[in-house]
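Worked example 3 (structure in, sequence out).
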């Protein structure tokens, strides 16, 4: 059974930085996509970034381009989301998710989800 565990969330002032981690376990990870999504209160879950675990192709939502960086450490089965220049509108619960079919921005195409980690950006 695949398990995804996020960590690294917290409270930060606007303009600050946080690094989220997503540790995966439970199977051999190969040509899959690992995505980060977020969900703010009263809003739908939205795509943030995705990386292909084999090959490393990357995609970002327009709202985070130039501020967030997704990366991976295959030896540790861990994906990271470095978040810089944070804004109050980045406040949300952040989830990592695994897509056995590859990379996608659509939440419905992801097979496994972590429990989420709260990120709060104060103004």
């Amino acid at each position: 059974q695949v398990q995804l565990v996020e960590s690294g969330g917290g409270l930060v002032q606007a303009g600050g930085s946080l690094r989220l981690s997503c540790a995966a376990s439970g199977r051999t990870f190969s040509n899959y996509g690992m995505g980060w999504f977020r969900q703010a209160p009263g809003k739908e879950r939205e795509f943030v970034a995705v990386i292909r675990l084999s090959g490393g192709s990357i995609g970002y939502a327009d709202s985070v381009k130039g501020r967030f960086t997704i990366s991976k450490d295959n030896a540790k089965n861990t994906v990271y989301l470095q978040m810089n220049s944070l804004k109050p509108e980045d406040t949300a619960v952040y989830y990592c998710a695994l897509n056995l079919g590859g990379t996608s921005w659509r939440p419905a195409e992801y097979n496994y989800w972590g429990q989420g980690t709260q990120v709060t950006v104060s103004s």
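Notes: The chain is about 0% helix and 50% strand. The two ends are 40 Å apart (CA to CA).
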